[in-house]
Design goal:
The chain is built from six helices and four strands; from the N terminus they run αααββαββαα. It has a four-stranded antiparallel beta sheet with strand order 1-2-4-3. This is Homing endonuclease LAGLIDADG domain-containing protein.
């Protein structure tokens, strides 16, 4: 990509209502991390499921976007977790269990633009997983 994006621009791109997969697929892994964090902060879940199991997930409306995120999850946690189609027509993508630890570190470490609420939840889940 010829234009250098700021971390804030990339974060805001991820937190926007619609993410252009053609645009984000051209970003470097470091740039993509900020877009993914914007997505997670605006639409994601970080916490324990009803059974008390650690989960961090996201629901998107684009299968291409879900696959793009899943490839980053594979690169970070070392396992491919395929997106899941939901009855609503949306697509779930995420990680659970101990694999949440490297994923949350990937999207939140050394980040200047974060949702205070999601960052707090990420730190809390990281603390639980490090025990």
């Amino acid at each position: 990509m010829s234009t250098r994006w700021s971390e804030k621009d990339l974060y805001l791109l991820g937190s926007s209502a619609s993410v252009d997969i053609k645009l984000v697929s051209e970003l470097s892994p470091d740039e993509s991390r900020h877009v993914i964090r914007g997505l997670w902060d605006s639409r994601g879940f970080i916490g324990l499921n009803l059974g008390g199991y650690p989960v961090t997930s996201l629901v998107v409306d684009s299968l291409d976007l879900a696959f793009w995120i899943s490839e980053y999850i594979r690169a970070v946690v070392g396992r491919y977790i395929p997106p899941r189609n939901l009855k609503s027509g949306l697509i779930w993508v995420g990680v659970s269990g101990r694999k949440c630890l490297p994923w949350l570190r990937y999207i939140y470490d050394q980040s200047n633009f974060v949702s205070a609420d999601k960052f707090s939840k990420a730190k809390e889940l990281i603390s639980i997983l490090e025990q």
